[in-house]
Design goal:
mainly alpha, 0% strand
Length: 204
């Protein structure tokens, strides 16, 4: 890979990682609701989970879509359904009525997404699939393992700081979201944006 290709890959990694998408919207909501420290497993799950995804896509999953095109349509349906579920969870993560009910009946309070949940989410995240498939197709077309691994490592090194910045932004918004009503409105907005992020998937 030439220096120009490295620069192009780094730019692609940065732009695709820093722009809004399901991961970043969820991390910003989590940062605002739970803070940076409690969202750390979520961030690491996104970063490491995506690196693993790029590697597996590069060493064979792309051929699966070529051989069985219907598998991509099934993945799209699963992705849409799961993202709608996550949008619901985000919208109600700071619902004062539900929080009060939970406190009264002793049920579990809302918690941040775990490392494993975040890593698994990459497999139903339409933007993550687009990023991984594009990165492998353009920057590791031979799909040799060392090329795939290099793309994955570069992506991971750039992706994790980018997604973490959204968590920091959410945490900083805690200064504005000083009461339950504001936090609730914010999370409902994040949920709506998460649903809107499905638009390119639905129309494609």
């Amino acid at each position: 890979m030439t220096a120009e290709m490295y620069a192009a890959l780094a730019l692609f990694c940065f732009v695709s990682s820093i722009t809004p998408g399901p991961n970043n919207l969820m991390l910003m909501s989590s940062g605002a609701t739970f803070g940076f420290r409690r969202t750390l497993p979520h961030m690491l799950g996104v970063g490491i989970g995506f690196v693993v995804m790029v590697i597996l896509v590069g060493i064979g999953l792309m051929q699966l879509f070529d051989l069985f095109p219907v598998s991509y349509q099934i993945l799209k349906v699963i992705s849409v359904v799961y993202l709608l579920y996550l949008a619901y969870k985000i919208a109600h993560s700071s619902d004062p009525v539900k929080t009060s009910e939970n406190q009264n009946d002793g049920t579990q309070q809302p918690t941040p997404i775990t490392f494993l949940q975040a890593a698994a989410f990459q497999w139903v995240n339409p933007k993550a699939w687009t990023m991984a498939l594009t990165a492998i197709s353009v920057y590791a077309p031979s799909q040799q393992f060392h090329s795939v691994l290099l793309v994955a490592v570069i992506f991971g090194a750039i992706n994790l700081p980018c997604v973490s910045s959204w968590t920091l932004l959410g945490q900083e918004l805690q200064r504005v979201l000083t009461n339950q009503q504001r936090l609730q409105r914010f999370n409902w907005t994040m949920a709506a944006l998460l649903v809107l992020s499905l638009y390119p998937v639905v129309i494609s």
